[in-house]
Amino acid sequence: MASVAAVCSRSMASKTPVGFIGVGNMGNPMAKNLMKHGYPLIIYDVFPDACKEFLDAGEQVVSSPADVAEKADRIITMLPTSINAIEAYSGANGILKKVKKGSLLIDSSTIDPMVSKELAKEVEKMGAVFMDAPVSGGVGAAQSGNLTFMVGGVEEEFAAAQELLGCMGSNVVYCGAVGTGQAAKICNNLLLAISMIGTAEAMNLGIRLGLDPKLLAKILNMSSGRCWSSDTYNPVPGVMDGVPSANNYLGGFGTTLMAKDLGLAQDSATSTKSPILLGSQAHQIYRMMCAKGYSKKDFSSVFQFLREEETF
Predict the structure, then answer these.
(1) Distance between CA atoms of 153 and 155, rounded to whole angstroms?
(2) pLDDT by residue (tens digit) across 140-173?
(3) What is the pTM of this model?
(4) For residues 231 and 229, what is the distance between their CA atoms, to the nearest angstrom?
(5) Whether the Cβ atoms of residue 261 and residue 290 lie closer than 8 Å to each other
(6) How confident is the model at residue 251 (pLDDT cuts 50, 70, 90)?
(7) 294 phi and psi angles, rounded to 5 deg
(8) How far is CA 205 from its chain centroid?
(9) Which end of the chain, N or C, is more open, meaning fewer C-beta atoms within 10 Å of its C-beta?
């Protein structure tokens, strides 16, 4: 466990540099919101081009996660997969090679809860603190600073994590022990995938029955079928502005990542003997989409997939 003195000194020095590893679609706007709140950043990304605008803005860019750990005692990681997270923490040039005692390490990646628990054990052996804090809200919420963070870890450390996470999100929720943040995120994305497919199916059916899509969306959103996928992130082009469906499904939350998260849900369901009949079907649909050219499109492109797939 980190010493109380280390925890106190960390919270007192609130504007000391914060390490940020992974500045992709989500990490980039998250890091920028930390900058807006006056935090100097120590940046690393496996793709150097992703770091360029931070370098141009005067932030420090380093060449490995270990270098980040050497220069910062509070680090946020935002990475695509469990494998990426393991490499960033435990790899040859990982955080754990140079992590300082008393450091606070917050992982906002969406990964297997079991991996979060294993990383927490390794971090604790080094005298540092690990918390899992995956996010919900997508790129739009990351840009506006309105993400929801689901935090798992030692409760006494939550306030220290909240100080940073509150700069990037409007909701920072303590979920319990390490891994519970990931559990909450996986459950959310399981429901999100199912509701997006349902919204796409309903919209497609209504259009083929002769309904105007904007009118149908309006009716759904004042009726009991209303959900986030219908009223905030509608998958039908032309219904809403400022969402991926209005931009050929570019940006947003990629189909590959949704398939990955549904795979995590499937693994968790198997290990806990929990039936997820619709979740399993959603997983197969998103895997099919990845195989048929939709992997880099936003997950709401399931509407286009349903429209174009003749085989159903």
Answers:
(1) 6
(2) 899 999 999 999 999 999 999 999 999 999 999 9
(3) 0.87
(4) 6
(5) no
(6) confident
(7) -100, 5
(8) 31
(9) C
> Cα-flanking dihedrals φ and ψ of residue 311, to 5°?
-80, -10
Torsion angles phi and psi, residue 150, rounded to 5: -110, 110
- The distance of Cα 13 from the centroid of its chain, to the nearest Å, equals 27
132, 193, 200, 285 from 38: Cα distances, Å:
24, 36, 42, 43
Would you tell me the crossing angle of helices 213-220 and 180-208 to the nearest 10 degrees?
130
185 a catalytic residue: yes
Contacts of 67 (CB under 8 A, 6+ apart): 42, 44, 93, 98
**CB distance 134 to 150 below 8 Å:** yes
Cβ count within 10 A of residue 204 = 18
Q: For the segment 179-212, what is each residue's pLDDT rounded down to a tens digit?
A: 999 999 999 999 999 999 999 999 999 999 999 9
Q: How far apart are CA 176 and CA 129, in angstroms?
A: 15
Candidate list 32, 185, 260, 297, residue with the active-site label: 185
Helix-helix angle 255-272:180-208, to 10 degrees: 120
SS (H, E, C) the chain: CCCHHHHHHHHHCCCCCEEEECCCCCHHHHHHHHHHCCCCEEEECCCHHHHHHHHHCCCEECCCHHHHHHHCCEEEECCCCHHHHHHHHHCCCCHHHCCCCCCEEEECCCCCHHHHHHHHHHHHHCCCEEEECCEECHHHHHHHCCEEEEEECCHHHHHHHHHHHCCCEEEEEEEECCCHHHHHHHHHHHHHHHHHHHHHHHHHHHHHCCCCHHHHHHHHCCCCCCCHHHHCCCCCCCCCCCCHHHHCCCCCCEHHHHHHHHHHHHHHHHHHCCCCHHHHHHHHHHHHHHHCCCCCCEHHHHHHHHHHCCCC
